[in-house]
Amino acid sequence: MTVLPEGFGAASDQGRVRDHNEDGYLVRPPLFAVADGMGGHAAGEVASRLALESLASKTTETWRDGRDVLLRALSEANRVVYRQAKSRAGARGMGTTCVLILLDGDRVHIGHVGDSRAYRLRAGTLEPLTRDHTVVGDMVEQGLLTPQQALADGNRGFLTRALGAAARVDAEVDSFDIQAGDRFLLCSDGLSGMLPDPVIEQIMRETPDAQAAADRLIAAANEAGGEDNVTALVVHPPPGEGGGVAVPGSAGTERRGATRIAVALLAAALV
Ligand code: CA
C-alpha cells in the first residue's frame, strides 16, 4: 500500500464481484486523478494506466498554466489510449473515464470525461462538482430522472464520453473557488453507484483524516455489495492553497512558501 502525505488519502479495491481492478489513481500534487478503465480481458486496466501515465508524464511546471492545461492533458491522454485501442491485439473498444483536479492557489480546476466524479464537502455539505457523461446522467440533467432514480437505473453505466473511444474527446473543465476547510473527493462509479450521496457525505463529515475517509468509503461500498471496482481519493488543499492561511506579513508568507516547496517535492503515487 502506498502511504500518502498528510492531507491526501486514497484507496482502490476490486470490490466483491470483479476478479481484478481496472480503476487507478494518481497523486502528484498539485494534480490528482482517478480513472476507471473498461474493455475486454485486461484492456480496461491498460486504458486507465495509460491515461494516468500520460498525466503523470507532465512536469509540475506544466500545471502552472492552470485550467487550459487540463483540456490539453485530457486530449493527449485520449490520443494515447485511442492509439493503443486501435493497434493493440485484444484492445479494441478499450477506454477509460478520468476525473482530475488541479489545485491552483485559491482556485481548483476540475476536468472530467465519463462517470467518475468530483465532490466537494463544504461546511458539512457534499456537493457534486461534475455531471456524469452517461445516458442516464443526461436524463438527470434534463430533469427526466431524479438522482435517486438514476442510481437505481440498470442503464446507468452507459457512457456517452470516454478517453480512447474516438480520435477526439469532448472533455469538460470547470473552475471553483477554494474556501478554508473545503475537502474534495474524486471517485469511480464503484463508489457513487453503491452509496447514495448522503451516505458519502456522512462518512466524509465523520472522518476528518483524509486517508481514513478514503478507507471508510471503500469499506462502505463493499459492505453495500461491492459490485464494481471502487476508488476514492480525498484531497484537503494545504494551507496557502485557499486553505485559509490568510495572515499577512512574513510569518504567513514563509509558511505558504514552505508549504509550496513541500508540495513540489512530494513523490507521485501511481497505482
Ligand atoms: Ca466502474
CATH class: Alpha Beta
Q: Total strand count, please?
A: 11
| Tertiary shape | globular
Task: Tell me the CATH superfamily.
Answer: PPM-type phosphatase domain
**Content of β-strand:** 15-25%
Which structural class matches the secondary elements?
A: alpha+beta
Unreliable runs, pLDDT <50, ≥5 residues? Answer: 243-271
Strand order of the largest sheet: 8-5-4-3-2-11
Count the helices. How many?
Answer: 8
- In total, the number of domains comes to 1
Distance between the termini: 9 Å
Q: Which CATH architecture is right?
A: 4-Layer Sandwich
Q: What is the string of helix and strand elements? A: EEEHHEEEEHHEEHHHEHE
Radius of gyration: 18 Å
Bound small molecules, by name, code or SMILES, are:
calcium ion
Q: On the 0-100 scale, what is the average pLDDT?
A: 86
Indicate the CATH topology.
Phosphatase 2c, domain 1
